[in-house]
Write a structure and sequence with these properties.
Carbamate kinase, alpha/beta, binds magnesium ion, 4-stranded mixed sheet, single chain, 409 residues
Length: 409
């Protein structure tokens, strides 16, 4: 039988201390013993990256990004070397590398670099030699020979990109949860673990505020159709497979719900109702890199309309300032903002082929006396802005309405 090539990634919690590193070493060895070739990607131990960032701020509140990359790339170097040592102690062969050493080539944008290509020669050579290859995640080397990092949480991306470049048979992401759930289990106690979910659903859930998987990693998986297995490093349980098309015969309409309380609503009141005004407002906001999510324009009677939109809370001050300036120049009224809003979303590719999802959403919320302030839809999702005080309740209502509490696969 052909030997399988498996890429495994272990997150910060999974390698958080000596005992955990030893447990991870044991798990890796069990694969190697089966004859599989294993490439392992590791994150920095526990909160190392946060601690390094904090440390840098004490020295210089505005450090140069090149030096930041020099600093924060060290966390992963530590965990990869320690993991190799743990494997050696158990009598197996392993070798650790930094991202630059194995030719993970990136562009030159420090602290948020993009991977351009991976030279797999060295890795393949070591695998042929019978070694377990351990690679520091989250980092690479730029086309200008500088150390770069890929953005927070970037080890997932390293792992998926390596799996794609090596044509791996399997890409596994080990984390501290045992898979992907129909909702955040901290809010919805009867959320169910999904056996499968599609790339598109995961991307949509992440965009709607669910903290699931690193978005860029999922995008790479989707682009090259590399299924991603998300599992816990603390148990033997099967996790969730993120894939292009699930093997489910009849896809349920909704596969997950998400809640975010990180957005705020801005309303520009009494906007003159004539062509070009919306274009002006949103062009200005976009040019300042403010990410607009939902937009609602109310019906007008007196040649005036109200335009409401949502922005991430940390851009609110900037959005208000810009809106005020535009309001004055176009002869609109006041700017009103509301930070106590929440957005609930339902997501599922099954919606494409079935009607009535929106109606069910709205009826379920209405039945529970939850007022909807704004609505937006995409091909595979429906989102509603509600008062923040009703956000969690709205999430529960929708989770139940679409039978997610009884989801089996
Ligand atoms: N250690 C890095 C971070 O905390 C990368 C990662 O964990 O994936 O962002
Ligand atoms: Mg981390």
């Amino acid at each position: 039988m052909r030997k399988k090539l498996i890429v495994q990634k272990y997150g910060g919690t999974s390698v958080g201390n000596v005992e955990r590193i030893e447990a991870v070493a044991q798990r890796i060895i069990s694969y190697a013993k089966r004859g599989d070739k294993v490439v392992v990607v590791v994150s920095a131990m526990g909160d190392t990256t946060d601690e390094l960032i904090e440390l840098s701020r004490k020295i210089n509140p505005r450090p140069e990004e090149r030096e930041m990359d020099m600093l924060i790339s060290t966390g992963e170097q530590i965990s990869s070397a320690l993991l190799a040592m743990a494997i050696h102690k158990k009598g197996f062969e392993a070798i650790s590398f930094t991202g630059p050493q194995v030719g993970i080539i990136t562009d030159t944008y420090h602290t948020k670099a993009k991977i351009l290509k991976i030279e797999t020669r060295r890795i393949k050579h070591e695998l042929e030699d019978g070694k377990i290859v351990i690679i520091a995640g989250f980092q690479g080397i730029s086309t200008k020979s500088e150390i770069t990092t890929l953005g927070r949480g970037g080890s997932d991306l390293s792992a998926v990109a390596l799996a794609v470049s090596l044509h791996a048979d399997r890409c596994e992401i080990y984390t501290d949860v045992d898979g992907i759930y129909t909702a955040d289990p901290r809010i919805i106690t009867n959320a169910k673990k999904l056996k499968y979910i599609t790339f598109d659903e995961i991307l949509e859930l992440a965009a709607r505020g669910a903290q699931v998987m690193h978005t860029r990693a999922v995008e790479v998986g989707k682009k090259f159709n590399m299924p991603i297995y998300v599992r816990s490093s603390f148990s033997q349980k099967e996790g969730t497979i993120i894939m292009d098309k699930t093997p489910l015969i009849e896809q349920s309409m909704v596969r997950g719900v998400a809640l975010t309380e990180n957005e705020a609503k801005v309303t520009v009141c009494d906007v003159p109702d004539k062509p070009g005004i919306a274009a002006q407002i949103f062009t200005k906001l976009a040019s300042q890199n403010i990410n607009i999510d939902m937009i609602v324009q109310n019906v007008s009677h007196k040649k005036m309309t109200d335009i409401s939109f949502t922005v991430p809370k940390d851009s609110l001050a900037k959005a208000i300032k810009i809106s005020n300036r535009i309001a004055t120049s176009i002869g609109a009224g006041s700017i009103v903002s509301d930070e106590s809003v929440a957005k609930v979303s339902v997501v599922g590719v099954g919606m494409k082929s079935q009607s009535g999802v929106a109606a069910r959403c709205f009826s379920a919320l209405a039945k529970n006396k939850i007022n909807i302030e704004m609505i937006s839809t995409s091909e595979i999702s429906i989102s509603c802005v509600v008062a923040k005080s009703t956000g969690k309740e709205a999430l529960k209502v929708l989770h139940k309405e679409f039978g997610l509490d009884k989801m089996k696969e």
